[in-house]
Known about the structure:
The structure is a homodimer. By secondary structure, chain A is an alpha/beta fold.
Amino acid sequence: MSTYDSRIDFQQELRIMGQAARKAARKLALLQGTSKSRCIEAMAESLFDSSSQVLEANEKDLAAAREKGLSQAMIDRLTLTTERIEEMVKGMRVLCGLPEPVGKVESTWIRPNDLKINKVRVPIGVIGIIYESRPNVTADAAGLCMKAGNAVFLRGGSESINSNIAIASALREGLCCCDMPKDAVQLVPWTEREAVNEMLKMKEYIDLIIPRGGEGLIKAVVENSHIPVIKHYKGVCHIYVDAKADIQMASRIVENAKCQRPGVCNAVETLLIHKDIADEFAPKIAEQLTEKGVELRGDQGFCRLAPSAKPAREDDWGAEFLDLILAVRVVDSIEQAIEHIADYGSGHSEAIITESKTAASLFTESVDSAAVYVNASTRFTDGGQFGMGAEIGISTDRIHARGPMGIDELTTYKYVIKGSGQIRA
Amino acid sequence: MSTYDSRIDFQQELRIMGQAARKAARKLALLQGTSKSRCIEAMAESLFDSSSQVLEANEKDLAAAREKGLSQAMIDRLTLTTERIEEMVKGMRVLCGLPEPVGKVESTWIRPNDLKINKVRVPIGVIGIIYESRPNVTADAAGLCMKAGNAVFLRGGSESINSNIAIASALREGLCCCDMPKDAVQLVPWTEREAVNEMLKMKEYIDLIIPRGGEGLIKAVVENSHIPVIKHYKGVCHIYVDAKADIQMASRIVENAKCQRPGVCNAVETLLIHKDIADEFAPKIAEQLTEKGVELRGDQGFCRLAPSAKPAREDDWGAEFLDLILAVRVVDSIEQAIEHIADYGSGHSEAIITESKTAASLFTESVDSAAVYVNASTRFTDGGQFGMGAEIGISTDRIHARGPMGIDELTTYKYVIKGSGQIRA
């Protein structure tokens, strides 16, 4: 339950939390990798030991959710079980084995005056995460931020407030056991919007905000934040089947990208088919997808070849269905496909299916998305699939981090310059 | 003169400009290095050819400035001469010879399923620059952004509006001569604050905002922008003279960092002296700096050893004097120096003067600033001095770019992934 009290001065309370997080971050930044792993292990162990308290808190959230009449999908996302807690614990432990991101020397050069410049990876500082219902984000984000040497300032959704408080308490207790300031993990215990807005103004104490959630949440964060934000926004992914595509491969990839897990951001939402291959490919893919329960919304060109398709409306282009629905358009050329993607895409992931090297090059050079694929499913845009070990999300922004945002992207750099008395002339 | 008209719908006008910039950016992103050099050369030539129009426009700004009673320093910054225009032209031409930043493959790896992932440098897109009086920024920023494949959306100060309009017109004309969309360079011709605020909301058309100017400008931009901002804020630089410092070297470096050009952000503002070396060093540096006309504001420890110093007030710590003024404190330990910098520094540039490797390591690891020096002047924090060729400014932010921000920092990356039909299991 929110500890709401109209007499709470959010600004003051949050600033105290922010100061403590900043102080903890300074300490974290100096830790060796082995010490950070010890902290993560201690947090994981403490979370495991607190399973019953966490489940009890989660029960309260679930009761409130049922009372409020939340949808079954929402309740599913909110629900914790012993297995889900064990998954969180396991996820944190995996981090310990990943390479240390801090202290890496990215490049070194010597200037004509003999100054030696090193570009070195360092933590960002304090990272604010604003998220919605899934309580596992509390543990996942705390572990990832800690691995990169950052303190974390968490603000979860109101539906999972009790679960989040219980998880964060367990993590903080774990930190105490290994002599680290528990304030490296801060959780905002108030569910009022006013508290988020105050948090978004604390640029002295929070260095970066990562919002995780729906369009409304992200928009509100972007409009109100005085702190840099990296958006993890929607995925309106496109697959373009070129005139020179291998039709078997195209069918397999489109089905995978649409059906394997339709509710995620890297699932395909619009299929573009070159007119020269449409006669053969369109009816085939229509039959195959219809069989899998996919609703097809086509332009005129496609509907003519696939009678099972409904006519697409203008707002189907660029829509993130997150469901077994696919918009399909027949295009005159690869250029038209590229233009369609520029006009309607969200800059997340797009693929071309082609045997032509020229077409592949044109597509990968011209399409400006975080991930551009040749002959592979868009479903691979994911920190794990990219080999990053873990991710905090998938950035659809262009600044600092693009695409899957792993541990390295939770760091920044500084220049360390060694001289022997150089002065500027 | 501003073309102010109360009937102007800033939102609509700016959005039209934004759309055009976005379209131009898409075209720029596909240009080879040689084509971009041709564009920059054409812009430079056109600017040179328009010298008389630019000087005429500048005359109008100067007349208005005198009428408004602006300070001599302001008028100096505002003034253009044939030489200053030639400098702008030369600056643009230098860019042509610098390495091409776009298309560089930063890293490549192959996943166990044989997907080949390439991380490739690409332009950011459209970059908004909001700046104050110096009209040369108009040409410098346009050239730099073009070199990195970006369109630029400029908004200069009201004092230089006529000069900026004349320079931007020349640059746009140059682009036309080489068959490029002139909208790759946009200049907001309205001086009203309303116009900036509308510009800061155009997240569909502008990808990054770089404010260049005083505290008030930067604060207003950060608070109102819906677009990511990289701040180029103040430099409160510190030099710490360690117990084990070479006193001759320390004197030379401190004098250089304070006196060589006191009005810039990488000049030193606070000197910290270890107590064990203070008896010897403090009187010496006090005499040396006083001779150079520097006003010293010391803590008790320093004032005792340097009678010429005034007592420092609390707000002298962390002040950016930008003048021949230096705050000086005697510290008990290197740890106290590090803490002082963490508490009062602006994260710009700090230096330690020491012969001790242990002290140097502790300092460079613990001090969290964009540039941390051992035995060199803070004055080297500068794109040219770092070997970047040119810079758009010096970032005091932690996200995306830190320290001198050159051409590479005006790019982002995308992942290009090549497969042979891979789907996700």
